[in-house]
Amino acid sequence: MRLAIASLVALMLALSFSSLGVVRSQEIDVNQTLTSMYDNVMSGAKATISKFLAGVQELFLFIVHKGLEVLITIARASYFALGLLGLVLWATGISPYRGRHLIVGAIVLAIIAEVARGLLG
Q1: Is the pLDDT of residue 105 over 80?
Q2: Which residues contact residue 74 at a Cβ distance below 8 angstroms, ignoring those fewer than 6 apart?
Q3: Backbone dihedral angles phi then psi of residue 16, each to the nearest 5 degrees
Q4: Which domain holds residue 35?
Q5: Which of 2, 52, 57, 90 could form a Cys-Cys staple with 99, CB 3.0–4.6 A?
Q6: pLDDT for 54-100, tens place per residue?
Q7: For the chain, how many structural domains are there in total?
Q8: Which residues in 31-48 are b (16+ Cβ under 10 Å) and which e?
Q9: How far is 52 from 49, CA to CA, in rounded Å?
């Protein structure tokens, strides 16, 4: 009788230890699945953030480019008007000194605007 009980206990222990291996195997599978899910979520979040920041960067560069184009257009109109006004003041003798300075200022503004336009593309 004792031998039968001891055999039964040994059998139960053997079965429980063998089932621990199955449980451990399932635990490893669950850990790997959770890890791969976490990696997928993190890589998706990184990709989304990267796309968003790239879009913000592209928008910022577009705004700066368009702003510089507007400033160059305004500078072109300004140096034309300054040069014309300076020419009139200098040629008529109303204020030749001021007219000469307006012409020089128009030339400087023209050089800056055209160099900026060349750099902008």
Answers
A1: yes
A2: none
A3: -70, -40
A4: 2-120
A5: 90
A6: 999 999 999 999 999 999 999 999 999 999 999 999 999 999 999 99
A7: 1
A8: eeeeeeeeeeeeeeeeee
A9: 5
